[in-house]
Amino acid sequence: MLLSTKAFIWYISAFLLFDELLHCHARNHYRFIVKEAPYTRLCSTKNILTVNGQFPGPTLRLHAGETITVDVYNKGDYNITIHWHGVKMPRYPWTDGPEYIIQRPIPPGSKFTQKLILGSEEGQYGGMLIMNGFEPLYMVPSLSIPSPKTSYPFPKPHAEVPILLGEWWKQDITAVYEGLLATGGDPNVSDAFTINGQPGDLYPCSRPDTFKLNVKHGKTYLRRMVNAALNDFLFFGIAGHQITVVGADGSYTKPLTRDFVAIGSGNTLDVLFHANQKPGQYYMAARAYSSSAIPFDNTTTTAIVKYNGNYPSSPSLPYLPFYNDTNASFNFSATLGSLVSEECPISVPLHVTTQIISTVSVNAFPCGFNETCLGTNGTRFRASLNNISFLLPSIDILEAYYGNLYGVFGESFQQFPPSIFNFTAQYLPLFLEIPKVGTEVFFLDYNSTVELVLQGTNVVAGIDHPMHLHGYSFYVVGQGLGNFDPEKDPLGYNLIDPPLLNTVTVHKNGWAAVRFQANNPGVWFMHCHLERHLTWGMNVVFIVKDGQRQKDRLFPPPPDMPPC
User: Fold this and answer.
1) Residue 126 clears pLDDT 60, i.e. is over it
2) Which of 101, 107, 163, 164 is closest to 132 using CA atoms?
3) Euclidean distance between CA atoms 188 and 175, whole angstroms
4) β-bridge pairing 127-131 and 80-84
5) What confidence tier does 212 reach under pLDDT thresholds 50, 70, 90?
6) Is 218 exposed, middle or buried (0-12, 13-18, 19+ CB in 10 A)?
7) Pick from 121, 142, 90: which is nearest to 524 by CA?
8) From CA 119, how far away is CA 121, in angstroms rounded?
9) What is the DSSP letter of 198?
10) Rounded-to-integer distance, Cα 48 and Cα 36, Å
């Protein structure tokens, strides 16, 4: 999945809405045929991978508690696996997806039956197809409908609408990835952002296919949003309308009404939109939030909200913060809170048994002999957690752990930063830029309560990091800008109604503190969701040990795992 020409991530961006009261465990079977097909955007045509020939792809409608199987036929030219972003896969990481972390890839011409075990979550989840290269973001929305036995904690909307935010390159995406690997620099920026697969009116050759949402005046619509952009945080808004956030990463939140939202790569939001303005046409739009000086896509993608009837086609753009408005992004995420009620209880760990504090850094290596390197000052970029840049093994870590194979991974990931310095200082010594490289894991006892503090640094350059943990959601109990103070900052933790997320933003030169109970045994990957940082090694693997009872232990592997 990283640091290898064998691995690249292609988003399927799945939406899964789980009903926590339904536990039917009905078995459903699906078929995905992964193959290339020609698609035209921005006046040019190229082949992209599709699922069942569709872009965006087919929709799955699921409920919590179900176990489904998906026959994945790889009719493309590259190794692939599928990861369903945010699905916890209780006791069954075997088909979670990350290549050479969890499983071997599915070779071209092969089939693999993926079992997906759904937990008790509610909301939407993104998925991704891991392929040779990196994330082209060819999206497959998957949306389940809530059970009739339950209701929303807000008035039932008139309709639910998936909103998938993505990117498009005119260049072949494997060439983008190969350039990233060859030069050690940043990847080429995308040529467009997209809403539901379409760039929108502001791009060439795009106006006729702009996504349009027809609405009825007076009705309320639930928009299930996912940011499937590779390397970008996004601001999103609707001209003339406020939007109310009611869910994030599959959990309900206290209603939060704003003119815009900020959404990190990999994050999902449920937002209510009231069609209560003068009938006409209005743009919804998204553009990048970028806190660093690196090149980024500064274009704006649009779609149209169209009230029923005939109106002049002259929509205006919504207000969105400026590209580098860190305060706007931070204030939005820091304001989110869980909805707490008798119907929506939460359980924040109050007594921590395992604390981990980790730096989150962009790093650099000197350029090798006879190489051309495009990182800072002619270096090759790397990235690290606690100064260890993750190296992908040749045997998957889950197989090695389950089969007691030695020499595949080490256990030297440190619980605290190996050196203490002013992490966010403007100028830092150059020796801090070079990390160690290794395949290191961190073991967690079953049912331990974990506090993980992620501290951004200004090593090489400070930037925002959307940090995603497989197999779990966690409570974001604290966030701040600057250096984390272990004596003072915990006094301000929100232990009453913190948001329950699976991807948390560590803002530029800031910190985030999360808590979770390690009650899902297995091998689980944590990584930055910016593709370039993941590729450079900003990752670690947590291994949660088995519990004493049989129901607290890892399931055995499936019989048809892909071969070596």
Assistant:
1) no
2) 107
3) 10
4) antiparallel
5) very high
6) exposed
7) 90
8) 6
9) B
10) 5
Identify the three-state secondary structure at position 551. helix
316 touches 282 (CB < 8 A)? yes
Q: Residue 20 gets which letter from DSSP? A: T
Residue 564 binned pLDDT confidence (cut-offs 50, 70, 90): low
Using CA atoms, how far residue 292 sits from 332, 380, 467, in Å, is: 19, 18, 17
Q: How far is CA 496 from the centre of its chain?
A: 26
Closest CA to 477 of 457, 445, 450: 450
Q: What is the 3-state secondary structure (H, E, C) of 31-87?
A: EEEEEEEEEEECCEEEEEEEECCECCCCCCCCCCCCEEEEEEEECCCCCEEEEECCC
Q: Are 167 and 232 in contact (CB under 8 A)?
A: yes
| C-alpha separations of 362 from 400, 509, 533 in Å | 29, 11, 8
3-state secondary structure at position 508:
coil
Tell me if the bond preceding 108 is cis, omega within 30° of 0.
no
Distance in angstroms (rounded) separating the CA atoms of residues 10 and 57: 13
Residue 232: its H or E element: none
pLDDT tens digits for 75-121?
Answer: 988 888 888 888 899 999 999 988 889 988 899 999 999 988 877 66
What SS3 class is residue 207?
Answer: helix
Please tell me whether the overall predicted TM-score, pTM, comes out greater than 0.90 for this model.
Answer: yes
In angstroms, the Cα distances linking 2 to 275, 429, 534 are 44, 28, 6
Gap between the Cα atoms of 387 and 357, Å rounded: 12
Query: How are beta strands 212-215 and 300-307 bridged, if at all?
Result: parallel
In sequence order, the 6+-apart residues with CB closer than 8 A to the CB of 427 are: none
Q: For residue 410, what are the CA distances in angstroms to 173, 304, 453?
A: 33, 52, 22
Cα-atom radius of gyration of the chain, to the nearest Å? 22
Rounded to whole angstroms, how far apart are CA atoms 456 and 151?
40
pLDDT of 20 > 50? The answer is no
**CA angle, 227 as apex, 253 and 474 as ends, to 5°?**
45
Strand partners, 36: 49
196, 56 in Cβ contact below 8 A? yes
Query: From CA 9, how far away is CA 1, in angstroms rounded?
Result: 7
Number of neighbouring beta carbons within 10 Å of residue 494: 17
Task: Tokens for 110, please give them.
Answer: 């092969």
- CA–CA dist 52, 55 (Å, integer): 9
Contact present, 470 and 516 (Cβ < 8 Å): no
- Tell me: the pLDDT tens digits for 232-286? 999 999 999 999 999 999 889 999 999 999 999 989 999 999 999 999 999 999 9
**DSSP element (H, E) containing 447:** none
Give every CB contact of residue 475 below 8 A, 6+ residues apart in sequence.
Answer: 338, 346, 348, 349, 498, 499, 500, 514, 515, 516
Q: How far apart are CA 414 and CA 420, in angstroms?
A: 13
Residue 8 CA to residue 130 CA, distance in Å, equals 5
Contact 259, 268 (CB under 8 A): no
Give the separation between CA 142 and CA 139, rounded to whole angstroms. Answer: 10
